[in-house]
Specification:
Layout (H helix, E strand, L loop, with lengths): L9 E5 H4 L2 E2 L3 H11 L12 E4 L3 H4 L8 H12 L3 E6 L4 E6 L1 E7 L2 E6 L4 H4 L6 E5 H4 L5 H12 L5 E5 H7 L10 H16 L6 E7 L6 E8 L2 H22 L6
Antiparallel strand pairs: 1-8, 2-4, 3-7, 4-5, 6-7, 9-11, 10-11
Length: 254
Amino acid sequence: EVKKFNDNKLAVMRNDAVEAIYDMNLNQLKLFIALVSLIEKGDTKFTEYKINAKALVNLFNLSNADNVYLVSDRVTDGLVKRVMIVKDKEKQEYEKYPIFSGIKYKDGILSASFNEKIKPFLLDLKENFTKFRLKEIKPFKSKYTLRIYQLLKEYEAIKERTFNINELREILNIQKNELKNFSEFRTKVLEVAQKELENTSMAFEYETRKQGRGGKVTEITFKLKNPEALEELQEVDDFIKQQSTKTSKPDTDI
């Protein structure tokens, strides 16, 4: 059965899977989350999850629908080999799990089977999980935006989250020889994510902390903007403007 695939579907993942390390490009991440969204609430075992490739046109931001088959083939080619690396921070140990046991692409239908070993991260979740709505991740053009979105979504109720810079680089799968200077990291990761997330529920500002005076940046704190509070402030501001406009009009009554 080909699952009905739509923007309002929720992908639910256990928090340690949200914080895991994925060596995936943007479209692979999107497709992984889209396939997770096909898992039904209450499922206790995996089935084969199927998506009509035409439904992936918007997910991959393709301008030409004819390219979807070629792109899907290329995306799945890499995705089937990917692993999820879960880190135990206290023990400094890593567990690596292949995500899929197989992916097929035939007659315009993409069929994926999850590896049984990752069931605890995706099935029958009762606590310590985070939900993502597909329509929010669809427009992203940077894989770093998508991952930062997930990490902030996990802390949505707390409204802020602090990372050691090396920890964040590791989760984002940025190698030691990549974006070595913080200025590069800020330009290619933070500023891009900030711009792409500006009109979402995960719009943020950030602060950095340095080690000693003039030292390297060691920590980043993301602070979520509160849309309700901003709307209230805007309403107050508009009300004040309206009142001042009224009082500044000349009194024509005699």
